[in-house]
Amino acid sequence: MTAPNQKFLSVPFTLKNWLPPWFGKQYRKVIFSTRIRYARNISEFKFPQFAKPKTRQYIYNSILKAVGEDGLQIIGLFDLNRRYLELLEERHLINTQPIPESYLMLDENELISLLINQEDHLRIQSLQPGFEPEQALAVADYWDHKLNKSLKFAGNSKWGYLTSCPTNLGTGLRLSFLVHIPGLFLTGELNKVKAAADQCRLAIRGLFGEGTKAIGSFCQISNQKTFGPVGVIIDQVNKFMIKLADYEWFARERIVRYNKQFLTDRINKQMEKLLNYKLSHFVSTMPNFKGIQELAKNLSMIKLGFDLGIQDQLDDKKITYLLFFCKPRHLELLNEKYTTHSFSDLLNSYYQYEEFTHAQG
């Protein structure tokens, strides 16, 4: 069952943009993206992991009908092998291993996605570049209201929306920001930020969310409180994020004031090292993740150097391009297509890479 203006993508599938529109524009060179996610379940049905296959298929068909002719693409997650599932996870589109009858619906720019039959019947996700909580909320609310017209979401006056994970009860809202905070890492101030976040009931997690570590000074910051008015929750997180950007820049300015020469030497050394490496160097070390950590650390320092005006050999667009692809499956697929390329060669051809297509191996 596929709506007239929807395309079902099986493997091999195409990701239209090498670099999705939600990753690039930055707020004060600190906040890279904004994500809002709603967890929703349909009344009178068990959660996906406890539901029968025919029930999960019915839920998918009901959501598909409710989506209508909005032109979303569909990926059957149960059809994908591990490397493609990890690729989607690296693009912040899924976060758990799929079960049968699980699907991902998304627009061609990956700004809106609907995750069906994983932890919950439905997770609505809206991604925006930089610091754009209002825009992300507007898109998420549009889909929430649209789908709720024909799908009766489970909930009550005491607990709000009912979700498979108790930490999502209430609004079912998760607002998160992807941030780059090398200044706080280098100055050892991150623990103070974590303490402040705990007081505001916010969580600082790794690059890929709960249970993961920060990579290259990138991490995610999100709300833990899900009860109360959505506007109040979002306002609290927004205020913290603005203060965080101020604090990060204060840390960066301290580094320049007291350790500029050391920082300059370190950045130049890592720049030379990076541009001479071939993609295969990092891919060969991926089983123990050391290559990815090394690359991320290098890129983080080079990005910091550009933001502080210390280096201009790599411009912001090219650094951002490499930062996004600093993930195991992205590097693996790049390496298969451009196996002999050094990073210098890759960047010289940067503007020719407008589409990413890869057949399943």
What does this protein structure show overall?
- The chain has 361 residues and is α+β, with helices and mostly antiparallel strands.
- The chain folds into 2 domains: 1-170, Glutamine synthetase/guanido kinase, catalytic domain (Creatine Kinase, Chain A, domain 2); 259-351.
- It has helices at residues 53-67, 82-90, 133-148, 182-186, 190-199, 230-276, 279-284, 290-307, 316-324, 328-337, 343-348, and strands at 7-9, 14-15, 31-40, 73-76, 103-106, 112-116, 122-129, 155-156, 160-161, 173-180, 202-205, 218-223, 356-357.
- The strands form 3 sheets. Strands 1-4-5-6-7-3-10-12-11 form a 9-stranded mixed β-sheet. Strands 2-13 form a two-stranded antiparallel ribbon.
- Mean pLDDT is 86; it is low at 8-14 and 351-361.
Summarize the entry for a quick read.
The chain is an alpha+beta fold and 361 residues long.
List the helices and strands and how they pair.
Layout: E1 7-9, E2 14-15, E3 31-40, H1 53-67, E4 73-76, H2 82-90, E5 103-106, E6 112-116, E7 122-129, H3 133-148, E8 155-156, E9 160-161, E10 173-180, H4 182-186, H5 190-199, E11 202-205, E12 218-223, H6 230-276, H7 279-284, H8 290-307, H9 316-324, H10 328-337, H11 343-348, E13 356-357
Helix pairs in contact: 6-8, 8-9
